[in-house]
Amino acid sequence: MTSALHQDLARILGEDGVASDGHTLARYGGDALGSYRAFRAAPLLDRVAAVVAWPTETEQVASLLRYANSIRMPVIPYGGGTGVMGAAVATDGAIVLNLQRMNGVIDVSGADFTARLQPGVILEDAHTAMMGQGLRLGHDPWSRPIATVGGAISTDGVGYTAAAHGSMGD
User: Rounded to whole angstroms, how far apart are CA atoms 101 and 54?
Assistant: First the structure.
């Protein structure tokens, strides 16, 4: 049996765009922060979201956020889950907005030194696309094969090249 929330989000995203089973909620309930690093905040890691949602386009994100706002439900963005700072830890009853299916490279311009990427693009894929235009991704964390652009931007991630190139925000 699915909840009314699940059903409402399925109308926005399609049935394959939402899950509310226990396994999925546990899998996407947080990032790589472990209780051994959370210290006094460790009990916060035991919270459980209500649903996980996977939009595939910008209008679906906008519709989901309008809906969540109308019912005053928190939304927790989720990238690759590789962060170790607790940025993707769910709150009880929240919607986890998993952006991994929005993984397109829109365009890269070596002439303009710009790249337009969807938030779910894996950093390694972004780097490969940029290399094709004579550019490189300065951000290079250990998690580049699995971390996402949106997650790295939202946490102002750093990697081992941060000393030379700065954080993701730089």
Answer: 6
Cα separation, 129 vs 43, whole angstroms = 41
Map out the domains of the chain as residue ranges. Answer: 4-98, 105-165
Query: Which pLDDT score, from 0 to 100, does residue 37 have?
Result: 58
What pLDDT shows up at residue 45?
A: 60
What is the fold, at CATH topology level, of the domain defined by 4-98?
Answer: 3.30.43
Please give the pLDDT value at position 85: 64
Distance CA 71, CA 80 (A): 27
Rounded to 5°, the CA angle 148-10-28 comes to: 35
**Concatenated DSSP letters for 153-165?**
HHTT---TTHHHH
Choice among 10-14, 46-50, 102-106 with the minimum mean pLDDT: 46-50
